[in-house]
Structures are given as structure tokens and as C-alpha cells.
Amino acid sequence: MARDPRHDVLFEPLHIGPKVLRNRFYQVPHCTGFGVQKPGAQARYRATKAEGGWAAVCTEYCAVSPDSDETPFISARLWDDDDLCALALMCEEVHSHGALAGVELHHSGAHCPRREYRLPAVAPSQLASEYLLVTPKAMELDDIRHVQDNWAAAARRAREAGFDIVYVYGAHSYLPMQFLSPFYNHRTDSYGGSFENRARFWLELLEVTREAVDGECAVVSRIAVDALGPYGVELDEGLAFVRAADHLVDLWDVNVGSAQEWSKDSGASRFFRQGHQLEWTGRVREATAKPIVGVSRLTDPDQMAEIVRSGVWDVIGAARPSIADPFLPTKIEEGRLDEIRECIGCNICIPKSDPGGNIGCTQNATAGEEFRRGWHPERFEPAANRERDVLVVGAGPAGMECAIVLGKRGFRRVHLVDAEAEIGGIMRWIPRLPGRGEWARVLNWRRIQLDKLPNVEVITGSRLDAEGVLTYGAEIVVVATGAFWSPTGLDRETHEPVEGADSSLPHVLTPEQIMVEGKVPPGERVVVYDGDGYFMAPDLAEKLAAEGFRVDFVTSFHDVAPFCYETLEDAFLRRRLHDVGVAMHKSVILERIAPGIAAGRDEYDEPFELEADAAVLVTQRVSDDALYHELRLDEERLETERIEAVYRIGDCVAPQLIADAIFDGHRLAREIDEPNPAVPLPYRRERIVLAQTAGAGA
Ligand code: ADP
Ligand code: SF4
User: Fold this and answer.
1) Distance, CA of 37 to CA of 59 (rounded, Å)
2) Alpha-carbon span 328 to 7, nearest angstrom
3) Number of the ligand 1 atom closest to the C-alpha atom of 397
4) For the CA of 270, the nearest ligand
5) Which numbered atom of ligand 2 lies nearest the CA of 367?
6) Residue 42: is its pLDDT beyond 60?
7) What value does the mean pLDDT take over residues 102-114?
8) Each residue of 662-696: pLDDT tens digit?
9) What percent of the chain stands above pLDDT 90?
10) Which of 121, 338, 425, 466 fits as disulfide partner to 112, beta carbons 3.0 to 4.6 Å?
């Protein structure tokens, strides 16, 4: 298939300083958890995107010196020549696919956690970081020179490592922005006060960086042109800085938000539409004729082409869309639009990356596995046992993913069977929760790919029992029957059901009963009890409030939906619940439900009671594993029926994130021709191995 001429503009080359972008697709810096600790993973991860057509791929934030030690988070580093060697591997691999390599030089100033370094953080003024327990040293002039010298040294190392693009990272309220912003900068010397003085540090950084790279690298600056809150600058000063620094910059990388409110930059789809940043970053053209790259979770090539054609930005930046589909540019170029695995804006990649140590993605099971497991997002080895027939029972995220990978590995026949009339499992109904519409892409992409695989047959409306599976005629069986929300309020705090909780009663409800069966709470007053901590309980509370119920949100956690802090949704969820009139009660353990009442105790062991006509239980899920165990019970019968193996994947093993259920299904299919596919193969680990010394341990 050929490229749609409407998208031609996305494939025009562009000069940025001394370098040329081969097209308009640019992977902006984003965290991975690899840094310099895992050079192989870093290199292969970025190189896979280079192979997938991105014109440039960048590292995550890359600290210039130990006083920007991000521990416990994992950043890249260019502190010394060993770091240089680690990142040179990335440059080499990226170049082998014809893309430019970029490094985001960084100093976090007041926001530096320094768990490894231990000495004080440095910042323009002694003002405590608003989001970490750090009160920095106010920088003396010597400190300013020291940071600038370190920056120059890191830039020289970057050039030597082979980077084509060197950043002065000023976004997200890190050190350059801390100097520019009166919120952080209370200085009275030549680096504080007037705009000109506040801009001085950043301008000098750009100068030393230009000098250090000596015309061999493009110099890029990232700026949050509007912090959309107090932690930075507003648009007028953002644009003023672009004007002031324009002669020193080859490409402007523009965004919004701050470290504290990064949620407004990496906006979750629950609250932000694609392209939401254009309202602010679309104004940067007023201040510069230099190339501009912007981001906003863009996956639609028509919208991308329109942005470039209109001249608002010249280059389409992407972090999340490039994680979800490293081959997005290639697929647009080849007109394979229905194969684009679109990001769903769930932000699970965030807890998986710099705090988690290994990036992962809901949509793309191979993200972060390129090096350690050798998985390629678009290439699948023919399976050694592909002459077998495989039956996959359950077409939820895990079953669908497994069937697709088995199909791509060339199995003669794969049957994907589901009890319901539609495939999708939990993804049939989760996208109907408030704001979760974009999550339907998990199912939509997989449905399209399943349709394309002639060796995969999808059968719906067929609930298989053990006998049905045994006599199906498949040699390999994969059980992917999922999980269900506990109907008795089995809870993490007590490891027991809630007294009186029985979802067969009219006043006790589970999420599936509400969303799938259409069960309606009796009366007006509903308690939503959250022992889960993620999105399900707040989403249901909002839905019920919108339907006119008087909703009390009761959680056993100290915060509302604490896991949503990691997905950058928590503050918006709380505000939304507040705005729709949901009362929130924290640190309460529910002990008893009866018609008219929900009772328990608070964190001080004081009794807690609410009038409630109904209770919705969002405590924990339970694996639907009965079929699997029944099949495994009778090994002799399996042999008689010539069933070689019965595996299980996804929530049927243990209830887990959608991302992890998909990963599990993918993993089994990748390894199904190994001697024991039930046990994952070990993955390559990158670590320091000490040479064995004679007599050690004697
Ligand atoms: P996961 O997240 O692990 O993929 P889901 O709960 O989303 O799990 O999906 C499980 C799917 O399995 C559901 O669509 C359900 O209808 C289907 N299913 C469960 N039991 C059977 C069965 N015995 N036969 C066929 N399909 C089943
Ligand atoms: Fe997008 Fe979610 Fe994947 Fe992150 S984890 S790239 S938000 S689909």
C-alpha cells in the first residue's frame, strides 16, 4: 500500500542547525528506567523506534553532574566518560537505522532527590521544593559557574558519544526554568529580579552548550511555555524567553506544565483530549521562525499533517504514541493506518519507567523487552510447533493478544473462543466508564489484527466447559478466562469478606453487575467502597453521581485512588468527584453492610457509619480459574484426548493491570515452542559482574 498524499508533508526533510531530520516524526525525551545502568536496553529500545521510522530519538532526562542525582528515579547521566560509553551504544544503534540521536541534558535543581549523592541540592534561592522533601542551597556565583562547567563538559561528552542533538532542558520546572520563574527565583543579584536577569542563567547555558558542541550538534531547548499553574512561567514570559534565546537554539521543543503538575503535560485520556497542548504551544510560532516540535498524544496522521501544513509546528513530537507503536511513522508512510497501535492515554508507562526500572505499555507488550527478551514489535519467528492446533479460551486482553501472536508465529489453526457475543473481556465495558472511551483502542486494534489473520478463527457466544475443551480437538490449550470483582467484598485490609456483603442481594453490587448486567442500586444513597486504589471505584462513583445518586466514596486507603497518583490522574479524579457532589471518606475499613446502613471503623478505630441504600464493592478481583484447574486435574484424560499442554494467562492466573495481562498472553505465545512454556525464559540482565577471585569465600 502507498502513502496517502495528504500525509506527504510529514515526510519532508528538515534542517535543524547542522543536522537534517529525515521526516517530521520525532521521539521527544521520555523516561524508560534504563538510563546508563542498562545501556543495552537503552540502545535497543531507542533503535527500534529509529528502525520504525522516527527521524530522531532522544534519551530521557540526562543529569549533567552528581548534584543532579535523581535516585531513586532512574535518569540517564553524562557525569563521566563511563556514562559516555554507555550512551555511545545508543548512538551507534540509532545511527544504523538512519535516525538522529538526541540527549536531554538536565539538572533538576531544587527538585533533586539525591538519595545516592546525599549532599545539598542547589537552586536559585533557598525555597523548598513543592513536591519533594528538599530544601536546596541558594546558589553562589561559584555554584552557577560550576553547573555551567558541568553542563559544558556533559555536552562535550555527548558530542563525543555521537549524539546529533544536545538539549538544554528547561521544561518541567527544572533548573533553567527555576531561574526564569519568579516562583523559584527570589534572587536580588544579576540572576534575579527583572526578566533579563532571570533569563541570564538559561541563556548562558545555551551559550556554553553551543560552544561545547562546536557546530557539530543541533542545540535544542525544551521549554514549558506555560506552566498552567504557579510552578514556572505563563505564556507571555514563555514566549519572551523564546524570543530572547532564539539565536542560540536550532529547534524549540515546546510543552506545558511543570514537575509538580506534569499531569497537565502527559495528560491522561481520562481528562485530556489529543492535541490539548496546542492552545498554548501553538502560539510559539509568534515568537520564532526556527523549527518547533510539540507533543500532545497525537496518533492521527490527518491531524499531524494539518498541524505541519498550518505551520504551527514543523515536527510532530511523541513520547507515548512512540511507545505504543514504535513503527508509527513507517505505517503512515506505507499507508497501513489500520495497523497503528494507538496509545490509549492510560499512563501506565509512567510507573513502569523511571520509578519502575523497566518501561512497559498497555498497548505494546514488546516495549522495554527489545534487548532483554529480544522481542521486536513487528517481527515474529515461526514457531517450531506451529503444526499444532491451539485453542485459546477467553477473548479478553490476554487471550486476544496471545491469539494474535500465535497467529503471527504461523500456527496452523488458532481458535479464540469466548462465551460472550463480543470479544474483548473487560474491555467490552471499561471504555464505557466516564472518560475511558479511548481505552477501546485496546480491543479495536486487536479486533482488526485478528480479522487479518487467516489462521486465527474467532468464535463468540460459546461457553466451553471442561468436556468441551477436552473434546475440542486442539493439542494446546490456553485458558484466559479472566477474573471477576469479589461479590463479598473480600478486602486487602482484612483478607475477609465484608459482613452482609453478598452481590446476589439487591442492595449489594459489583462493577460488572452495574456495567454489564445493568443492575441498578435501589434507593438514592449509594456507598462506593474502594479497596482497590485504581480507577474503577472513582469512575463508578462519578457515573452513579451523574445518574442522580447521592454517592459516598469510602476508601480504606489514606488517599482517594492512590495508584492514580502514578498515572497522573489522581488530582483530576478528586476534583471531578468533588465537583459532581461525591462525599469522600478516607482511611475507613468497611465491616458491615445492611439495607440502609454501611458501617466500619476509621484509622483511629472510631466507629464509622453512613446511611446507605446500596453498596458498590470495589475491593479485589478473584481469578476465574475453575476451568483451568478442572482441566489440569485429570492428566490421563488429557493424554487420551492428545492434549499436550494446558496453560493459563492473564487475570485467570492473578488479577493484574491490563498491560500485564496483555504482556502475559504475549509472553506465552512468544515462548510456546520452548521446552517448558509455562515458566518464562530468563531475560538478559545488565549488571556489574565481579570477576571471580581465587580463594574467594575461603
Ligand atoms: P484477561 O484480562 O485475563 O484477558 P478478561 O476477564 O478480560 O481477562 O477476559 C476473560 C474472557 O474470558 C471474557 O470475555 C469471558 O467471557 C471469557 N470466558 C470466561 N470463561 C469462559 C469459558 N468457559 N468459555 C469461553 N469463554 C470464557
Ligand atoms: Fe499510551 Fe498507555 Fe502505552 Fe503509555 S502505557 S504509551 S499511555 S497506551
Assistant:
1) 13
2) 13
3) 4
4) 2
5) 3
6) yes
7) 97
8) 999 999 999 999 999 999 999 999 998 887 665 55
9) 97
10) 121
Q: Are 566 and 350 in contact (CB under 8 A)?
A: yes
Q: How much is the average pLDDT of 103-107?
A: 98
The residues, ordered by sequence, that sit 6+ positions from 676 with a Cβ below 8 Å of its Cβ are none
Q: What is the mean pLDDT of the chain?
A: 97
* C-alpha 513 to ligand 2 mean position (Å): 28
Three-point CA angle 397, 454, 679, nearest 5°:
45
pLDDT in tens, 479-517: 999 999 999 999 999 999 999 999 999 999 999 999 999
DSSP state of 577: H
Query: Residues with beta carbon inside 6 Å of ligand 1?
Result: 393-399, 417-420, 425-426, 463-464, 480-483, 624, 627, 650-652, 661
Mean pLDDT of 104-129: 97
pLDDT at 577: 98
Q: 552-579: per-residue pLDDT in tens? A: 999 999 999 999 999 999 999 999 999 9
Task: Tell me the backbone φ, ψ of residue 273, rounded to 5 degrees.
Answer: -85, 165
Residue 71's Cβ-count burial label (10 Å; 0-12, 13-18, 19+) is: middle
Question: Which atom of ligand 2 lies nearest, measured to the CA of 342?
Answer: 8
The region that residue 542 occupies, defined by phi over 0 for left and psi between -120 and 50 for alpha, beta otherwise, is alpha
Strand partners, 392: 416, 478
490 C-alpha to ligand 1 centroid (Å): 21
Q: Smallest Cα–Cα separation from 42: which of 94, 107, 78, 81?
A: 94
| Ligand 2 atom 1: residue of nearest CA | 343
Which residue's CA lies nearest to atom 13 of ligand 1?
Answer: 425
Q: How far apart are CA 571 and CA 573, in angstroms?
A: 5
At residue 476, the pLDDT reads 98
- What number of other Cβ atoms are within 10 A of residue 618's Cβ? 27
Residue 544 neighbours by CB under 8 Å, 6+ apart = 514, 521, 526, 528, 551, 616
Which 8-state DSSP code applies to residue 18?
Answer: T
Query: In the prediction, which pLDDT does 698 show?
Result: 44
**Using CA atoms, how far apart are residues 164 and 160, in angstroms rounded to an integer?**
10
Distances (CA, A) of 338 to 42, 328, 354, 452, 453: 29, 11, 31, 11, 14
Who's near 162: CB < 8 A, 6+ residues apart? 88, 91, 92, 95, 101
- Cα separation of 306 and 313, whole Å? 10
In this structure, are residues 28 and 295 in contact, taking their beta carbons and an 8 Å threshold?
yes
Q: Which of 389, 435, 437, 396 is nearest to 415 (CA)?
A: 389
Q: Which 3 state secondary structure label does DSSP give 592?
A: strand
Q: How far is the CA of 483 from the centre of ligand 1 (A)?
A: 8
Which residues carry out catalysis? 174
CA distance 326 to 311: 25
Max Cα-Cα span within the chain: 86
Place of cell 515458566: 679
Whole-model pTM? 0.97
Neighbours of 437 (CB within 10 A): 14
pLDDT at 694: 54
Name the grid cell of 186: 527570589
Q: Rounded to the nearest 5 degrees, what angle is found at the Cα of 261, between the Cα atoms of 258 and 267?
A: 105
Q: Which residues line ligand 2 (CB under 6 A)?
A: 320, 323-324, 343-349, 361-363
Q: Copy the grid coordinates of residue 409.
A: 508465529
Kindly give the number of the ligand 1 atom that is closest to the alpha carbon of 463.
24
Q: Do the beta carbons of residue 139 and residue 71 sit within 8 Å? A: no
Q: How far is the CA of 362 from the centre of ligand 2 (A)?
A: 6
- pLDDT digit string (tens) for 567-626? 999 999 999 999 999 999 999 999 999 999 999 999 999 999 999 999 999 999 999 999
- Calculate the dihedral angle through the C-alpha atoms of 110, 113, 117, 118, rounding to the nearest 10 degrees: 80
